[in-house]
Design brief:
Layout (H helix, E strand, L loop, with lengths): L1 E6 L3 H13 L5 E4 L16 E2 L10 H20 L3 E2 L3 E5 L5 H13 L6 E4 H7 L7 E5 L3 E3 L1 H14 L3 E3 L4 E6 L6 E5 L3 E9 L5 H7 L6 E13 L10 E4 L11 E4 L5 E4 L3 E2 L13 H9 L1 H9 L1 H12 L1 H9 L10 E14 L9 E4 L3 E6 L4 H17 L3
Parallel strand pairs: 1-2, 1-12, 2-9, 5-14, 12-20
Antiparallel strand pairs: 3-8, 4-8, 5-7, 6-7, 10-11, 11-12, 13-16, 13-17, 13-18, 14-15, 15-16, 19-20
Helix pairs in contact: 1-5, 1-11, 2-11, 9-10
Amino acid sequence: MYSVLIVGGGIVGLATALKIKQANPAIKMAILEKEDSLAAHQTGHNSGVIHSGVYYKPGSMKAKNCINGYNQLLSFCEQEEIPYELCGKVIVATDPKEFPALDTIMERGKQNGLADLKNISEGELKEIEPHVNGLKGIYVPQTGIIDYVSVTNKYAEIFKHFGGEIFLGNKVLDIKKNKNNGLLTVVTNNQSFTTRLVVNCSGLFSDKIAKMMGDKVDYKIVPFRGEYYKLKEEKQRLVKNLIYPVPDPAFPFLGVHFTRMINGGIEAGPNAVLAFKREGYKRTNINLAELGETLAWPGFQKVASKYWKTGFGEMYRSFSKAAFTKALQKLMPEITKDDLVPGGAGVRAQACDRNGGLIDDFLISEGENYVNVCNAPSPAATSSLSIGDTVSKLILKRF
């Protein structure tokens, strides 16, 4: 018998568990994770960037949680001696048509409270990143790099120190409500748990878990795979830190970029292609039932009909290394196909509403027995402790 069960052992689930337990250690809590390790999916497959909050619409959940989460994350890492580096990044305009969008990013960053943002000329851009191609840009000193798996494991360590329990290898199959006492029975592939409340932090399966709890789910999680290449060791000198393009405002993706990793190496990417399986990290990973659900969703059909050219271009880059290289050459003309070796891939859980909107902001819903973290893509890792605060307040008011 538990007071709170959290479904999902990624960074958001662990941060939420930690925040609840720190606020009220007497609450009996457990985390259910279907894999044999924590941070196995979105948390463990992202690019390890500490986001500053420069892009997000002022007043949005993303903006507020990213800035707050950023400050909490840095304090946590200092306290727990987790390595990180605030190396800064440049956002680069390669075409005059991108200047208005660059100005919007600068204005948003200022409204979100970021100090020391700097508009930089072509010459100043070359001083920061000598091999970059750009007409002008923005320098963001707050951006950093980190290993989010290490952060998640530290959250888990402290959560367990406060008496929290973690059950790995427990995939949630069903959630039933007892009509007599109002308690929930959470059925996994291994055992059953009884609880007062469920917090759904299940990422790629958040819509399915939400449905089990009777939430009115009028969105579908659409999985988008992001594939990376890595620069060969002898060409890593071309990138000092982080180089980003001006993102397309129509999409909740940042475009292919160059990222120095905290554990060494330079990643180049990602693209954004429809995954044929919710956890489809390879092109060959196909789940016909899950793919069918995506293709049948009215919202996805509207997205596909509106942006099919963009989608086709992303898919083409997935199959063509030459096309992927060409996309990178917009930012760095010196890069050649031979400079790139296959890297990893991640899958983004992107909520898509019925009307064809790719939901850009964080989305959290609550009911009598549950809180659902419905949409928590990037910058959720940076924002994790702040999201944990947001969700824990919804839970703690019930005790």
